[in-house]
């Protein structure tokens, strides 16, 4: 973590002395009023910030933020020509930038988001541009960020805003009506773009407030989160709500980190109950807050993924690597995990299964869903196990067995011998959409990280044995 010097508030000098990262007071600095609640415990409903604490925290944090804030592209948009008289279009442009950045930031680290955000804003600089996009384009832009539902909601939300007249609702409560905008995002847009004095609460804010007030309640519980919102609402500065909210999050992201808080540089160290407690009680650590909650155990699932490649010619077309191949892709259901994304055919397995069982399941699936009949050995050019890997979702560890199945173009299908490019087929559980795409299309499509990884594994597998295999 990068520690930044703070020259705006008197700092308590603390040292992180051992591997357990204990934070202790090492010197006496200027006397400041101490948080009176330490060590309070008790019902979280009773926690309050005193008026003088609120004033101190606001002033210290904003001063620190003015000096230390990171220069980020979405902040630049919001700081451009910042006046109290921004015209409506300008305010909407800012709201849109906050929206896009906040949704991306819910996915991954700031450093990763920067390039995604810049590309996104270049392609769709306003909500009107985004509303014209297709879901394929949006998924392509989002590829690699994961949790594609959020990307789809951005698109649907943009369409909603444009259909309602092209203006974002001007308050946090009204923003909640836009598809994909939840309480956190509404608070961020309203406070940053519209200057409404509403709080935001994310993991960083929970951590900072839990430490400021030595809150030991389970931070995952609804009641705790509700009360953190209430406390964050007490703190938010009515003159600079957007800056204040960003300052708290920035503090959590850069100084008040989960395991290595840099209390010696912290602008609100004199208001921090957890730090005070650690000075009085050698066994207490600031990192005791918020309370650690045991992670939900991830479920282990298995899946057989088959990359079906159809050779359109018996000879390479232009160079040795171009056989005019087409790859079978199937669209995932519109609801649930990775909704609406294209992927290679895959079969979920109840348990870990051997190769024969997997192939049997795959063959049934290819026949019932895509009409591919694999009963003539002459149709199969090759069939190889490529490898396996584990893809981690929030609550699932998915072990994927990757296989490459290369077929001749004459392979028999329910549709005769001709492979069409866009097909829909009725199945018991609805419509299955699938298509055959060439290598070039595959390379530019918005595919999930898991699908891209499977394809890369196949490429690598091919390279490794290219000198041995002759088609
Ligand atoms: S708010 Fe965080 S970084 Fe600041 S003194 Fe408290 S524990 Fe340390």
TrEMBL record:
Annotated region Disordered: the residues are 1-42
Q: Name one GO molecular function term.
A: metal ion binding
Stretches assigned to the HhH-GPD domain: 104-254
Chief localization class?
mitochondrion
The enzyme's E.C. designation: 3.2.2.31
SMART domains assigned? ENDO3c
Q: Which GO terms describe its cellular component?
A: mitochondrion; nucleus
Biased-composition ranges, Polar residues, are 1-18
PANTHER family on file: ADENINE DNA GLYCOSYLASE
**What does the UniProt function comment say about this protein?**
Adenine glycosylase active on G-A mispairs. Involved in oxidative DNA damage repair. Initiates repair of A*oxoG to C*G by removing the inappropriately paired adenine base from the DNA backbone. Possesses both adenine and 2-OH-A DNA glycosylase activities.
Its needed co-factors are:
[4Fe-4S] cluster
Q: What is this protein called?
A: Adenine DNA glycosylase
The cofactor remark states: Binds 1 [4Fe-4S] cluster.
Q: Which reaction does it catalyse?
A: Hydrolyzes free adenine bases from 7,8-dihydro-8-oxoguanine:adenine mismatched double-stranded DNA, leaving an apurinic site
Q: Name one GO biological process term.
A: mismatch repair
Question: Which compartment or compartments is the protein found in?
Answer: Mitochondrion; Nucleus
Arranged from A to Z, the UniProt key words for this protein are:
4Fe-4S, DNA damage, DNA repair, Glycosidase, Hydrolase, Iron, Iron-sulfur, Metal-binding, Mitochondrion, Nucleus
Q: Indicate the family of this protein.
A: Belongs to the Nth/MutY family.
């Amino acid at each position: 973590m990068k520690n930044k010097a703070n020259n705006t508030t008197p700092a308590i000098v603390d040292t992180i002395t051992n591997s357990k990262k204990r934070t202790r007071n090492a010197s006496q600095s200027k006397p400041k009023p101490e948080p009176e609640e330490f060590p309070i415990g008790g019902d979280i409903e009773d926690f309050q910030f005193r008026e003088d604490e609120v004033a101190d925290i606001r002033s210290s944090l904003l001063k620190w933020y003015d000096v230390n804030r990171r220069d980020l592209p979405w902040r630049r948009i919001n700081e451009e020509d910042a006046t109290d008289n921004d015209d409506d279009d300008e305010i909407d442009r800012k709201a849109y930038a906050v929206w896009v950045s906040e949704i991306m930031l819910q996915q991954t680290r700031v450093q990763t988001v920067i390039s995604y955000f810049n590309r996104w804003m270049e392609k769709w600089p306003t909500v009107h541009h985004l509303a014209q996009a297709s879901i394929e384009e949006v998924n392509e832009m989002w590829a690699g960020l994961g949790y594609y539902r959020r990307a789809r909601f951005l698109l649907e939300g943009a369409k909603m805003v444009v259909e309602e007249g092209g203006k974002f609702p001007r308050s946090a409560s009204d923003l909640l009506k836009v598809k994909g905008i939840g309480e956190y995002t509404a608070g961020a847009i309203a406070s940053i773009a519209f200057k409404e004095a509403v709080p935001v609460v994310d993991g960083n804010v929970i951590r900072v407030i839990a430490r400021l007030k030595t809150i030991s309640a389970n931070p995952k519980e609804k009641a705790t989160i509700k009360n953190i919102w209430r406390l964050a609402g007490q703190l938010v500065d009515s003159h600079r709500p957007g800056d204040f909210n960003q300052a708290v999050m920035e503090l959590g992201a850069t100084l008040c980190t989960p395991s290595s808080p840099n209390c010696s540089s912290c602008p609100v160290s004199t208001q921090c109950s957890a730090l005070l407690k650690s000075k009085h009680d050698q066994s207490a650590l600031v990192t005791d807050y918020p309370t650690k909650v045991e992670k939900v155990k991830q479920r282990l699932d298995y899946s057989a993924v088959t990359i079906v490649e159809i050779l359109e010619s018996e000879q390479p077309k232009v160079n040795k690597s171009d056989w005019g191949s087409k790859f079978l892709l199937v669209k995932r259901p519109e609801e649930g995990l990775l909704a609406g994304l294209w992927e290679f055919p895959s079969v979920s397995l109840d348990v870990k299964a051997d190769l024969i069982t997997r192939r049997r399941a795959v063959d049934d699936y290819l026949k019932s869903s895509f009409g591919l009949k694999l009963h003539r050995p002459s149709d199969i050019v090759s069939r190889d196990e490529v490898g396996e890997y584990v893809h981690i979702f929030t609550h699932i560890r998915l072990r994927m067995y990757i296989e490459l199945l290369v077929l001749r173009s004459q392979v028999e299908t329910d549709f005769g011998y001709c492979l069409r490019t866009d097909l829909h087929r009725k199945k018991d559980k609805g419509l299955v959409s699938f298509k055959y795409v060439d290598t070039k299309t595959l390379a530019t499509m918005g595919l999930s990280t898991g699908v891209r990884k499977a394809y890369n594994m196949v490429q690598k597998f091919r390279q490794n044995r290219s000198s041995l295999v002759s088609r």
